[in-house]
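TASK: fixed-backbone design
INPUT:
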């Protein structure tokens, strides 16, 4: 049963990836921008994060995220009012997850390619970024804006 569910998640994510195929991965305008969901599928890859929705309502939010890249990635839920992609980086090419104006809520720690993980968080209303903070990855585009209403 567990495996069946995992396959379902991967299929959903794969079909989503097909829809966005060919689009500029930094241009989320091709996606239904007003999709609101508290159950979100997505994937991380070099270099981006694709999601089935960019908005949720306050409360429990579940992310099922696959790594469709060729190297390990992480997936962090960060509450911040910085513009997407604009959290200041340190010399190590990462940003301080305990820095000012940044609140890391929870994360899927670095996970292997062709696997998926589920992260459940409780989110209050506000502006968020979903991102990977491995050295260089955020700068390379591994972020997505996310709003909780
Ligand atoms: Cu990454």
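OUTPUT:
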């Amino acid at each position: 049963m567990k495996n069946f569910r995992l396959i379902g998640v991967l299929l959903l994510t794969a079909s989503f990836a097909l829809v966005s195929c060919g689009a500029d991965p930094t241009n989320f305008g091709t996606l239904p921008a007003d999709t609101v969901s508290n159950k979100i599928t997505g994937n991380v890859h070099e270099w981006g994060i694709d999601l089935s929705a960019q908005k949720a309502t306050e409360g429990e939010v579940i992310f099922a995220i696959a790594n469709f890249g060729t190297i390990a990635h992480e997936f962090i839920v960060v509450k911040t009012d910085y513009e997407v992609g604009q959290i200041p980086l340190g010399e190590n090419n990462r940003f301080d997850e305990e820095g000012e104006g940044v609140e890391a809520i929870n994360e899927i720690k670095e996970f292997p390619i062709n696997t998926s993980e589920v992260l459940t968080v409780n989110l209050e209303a506000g502006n968020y970024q979903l991102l990977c903070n491995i050295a260089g990855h955020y700068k390379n585009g591994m972020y997505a804006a996310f709003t909780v209403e």
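COMMENT: The helical segments are 2-20.
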